[in-house]
Amino acid sequence: MKIEDVLSLVRPHLLTLQPYSSARDEFDQEKNKDFNFTYLDANENPFETGHNRYPDPHQRELKKLIAPIKGVDINQIFLGNGSDEAIDLVIRLFCSERDNILIPAPTYGMYKVSAEINHIHIKTALLDEDFNLTNSFMSNIDMNTKVIFLCSPNNPSGNLLDVQSVLDQFKGIVVVDEAYLDFTTSRGFIKQIDNYPNLIILQTFSKAWGLAGLRLGMAFARPEVISLINKIKPPYNISSATQQLALKAIANADQVKPWINLIKSERERVATELSKLRTVKKVFPSEANFLLVRIEAAQEVYDDLTGDRIVVRDRSTVVRCEDCLRITIGTPDENDRLIAAVKRSL
């Protein structure tokens, strides 16, 4: 597949769209940062608060640090207000009302919500009982299927999906959401961007980096695709505070790996302890920072845990997740409290 084939999938009027030009687009603040300019171009409050100036709309300094960490070029990076912004922009970029997206079931709910907001039809393909893609997954594609979303590791099941088979067969846009990749042994698919022009990778600072409150998501794709996503994004979608705090976090990146290692070891410990309980029917294998647990009387256990001031996620009403709780891996002390509380609820 060539990049020209990918560009042919874009909604035609967006190819020629003239994006909003902000004051900071017209003046290269980054290039002139060493000079003392008087800024009277953006109708800002002139009194210094630390945040009285608009942020860099292209997050150049932040992207310069992210690029070597991820092994990509700066022009292959989009930064969004959480990965949810990237999900919405991808749908708006490629899908008209006659088009549809394909998602597995169960999976992360925002793919469906974003499609519904944009009035795009959603096709779903049921995963098997172990939450893997079935052999018939690709048979759900029709001539109007523009985008496939694959969360891998998947949410709420925690397992990796067979992304490669989809990439090899589908000629539309493949979005691989790797929000939980840091907790796996997989290298993910970011290195495949040059081989698959139709591939878009989503990652986040919310999980392993511990910055969920900042709402900072990342998308990686070929420069031509990133350029089009940037064209339709809001001009100042990442605040100066978020950019500054993310820069600080990257400067202290050494703390992330120990967090990941502890979460992974705690994931195994919690899975082992829960598996010993007679009412626990199954702890599904997980490559994420959570466990999906099938347990007798899941709703009652959920209520008991809430009574013990422990909040987990009841997924019992989700397809394939009957009687299941999704439990995030916490600190060792938090996990001890969880295990003890589940035992008391039996």
Report what the structure shows:
By secondary structure, the chain is an alpha/beta fold. It has helices at residues 3-7, 12-15, 23-26, 60-70, 82-94, 110-117, 163-169, 223-232, 240-251, 256-275, 298-307, 332-344, and strands spanning 77-81, 100-105, 121-126, 145-151, 173-177, 199-204, 216-220, 280-283, 290-295, 313-314, 324-328. The protein has a 7-stranded mixed sheet with strand order 1-7-6-5-4-2-3, sandwiched between helices. A 4-stranded antiparallel sheet has the order 8-9-11-10, with helices on one face. The longest helix has 20 residues, at 256-275. The model has no long low-confidence stretch (mean pLDDT 96).
Fold topology:
Elements: H1 3-7, H2 12-15, H3 23-26, H4 60-70, E1 77-81, H5 82-94, E2 100-105, H6 110-117, E3 121-126, E4 145-151, H7 163-169, E5 173-177, E6 199-204, E7 216-220, H8 223-232, H9 240-251, H10 256-275, E8 280-283, E9 290-295, H11 298-307, E10 313-314, E11 324-328, H12 332-344
Parallel strand pairs: 2-3, 2-4, 4-5, 5-6
Antiparallel strand pairs: 1-7, 6-7, 8-9, 9-11, 10-11
